[in-house]
Design brief:
Dna Ligase, domain 1, single chain, alpha+beta, binds zinc ion, Arc Repressor Mutant, subunit A, three-stranded mixed β-sheet, 2 domains, 5 strands
């Protein structure tokens, strides 16, 4: 609980500094959205965020949600994942903990990778002239389910082909 409050305070402070630097207004909506985002574990869409705000009985327009998430991405407090999906997928940057994802090229399924090897190679990377804000790895390929479906399809095609000849 204590640790969570510290993260909330830290990100609120960073967002405040960002808004001051950009000469933007520090509205209570913007900070309420930031708080809600930092209470969501893992990835979320604008629709999920809208639901979270509704559950808190805090009314904000969808436009405000879009604009605020854009500002939070610029402020380095939120990432927008480059996943192929109908809605944008976001995730908070709670700390500098590296994260890795594997994405299926076929069905666009996204799964979190828990690999010690990937984590340790992130740990070994300390650039001297580049200040790192966050570390994310994306691995693209074909998921097990799609692989099975592709093999099945191939087998069927081969059988049909053999019957034809
Ligand atoms: Zn797949």
């Amino acid at each position: 609980m204590g640790e969570k409050n510290t993260i909330q305070e830290t990100v609120a402070h960073r967002f405040k500094q960002f808004l001051i630097a950009k000469r933007l207004r520090q509205t209570k909506e913007r900070f309420a959205i930031l708080r809600a985002i930092y209470d969501i574990e893992g990835t979320f869409t604008i629709e999920d965020l809208e639901q979270t705000m509704q559950n808190r009985r805090f009314h904000v327009s969808t436009g405000t949600l879009y604009l605020t998430t854009q500002l939070l991405v610029q402020a380095n407090l939120l990432i927008r994942h480059p996943f192929s999906s109908t809605s944008a997928i976001f995730e908070r940057i709670a700390d500098d903990r590296p994260r890795s994802y594997q994405i299926c090229n076929n069905c666009h399924l996204v799964t979190r990778i828990k690999s010690k090897e990937l984590a340790s190679s992130f740990d070994c990377y300390h650039p001297r002239t580049f200040s790192v804000s966050h570390r994310i790895a994306y691995v693209y390929g074909i998921c097990a389910k799609c692989n099975r479906a592709i093999h099945k399809q191939l087998k069927l095609a081969q059988q049909t082909n053999n019957q034809d000849h």
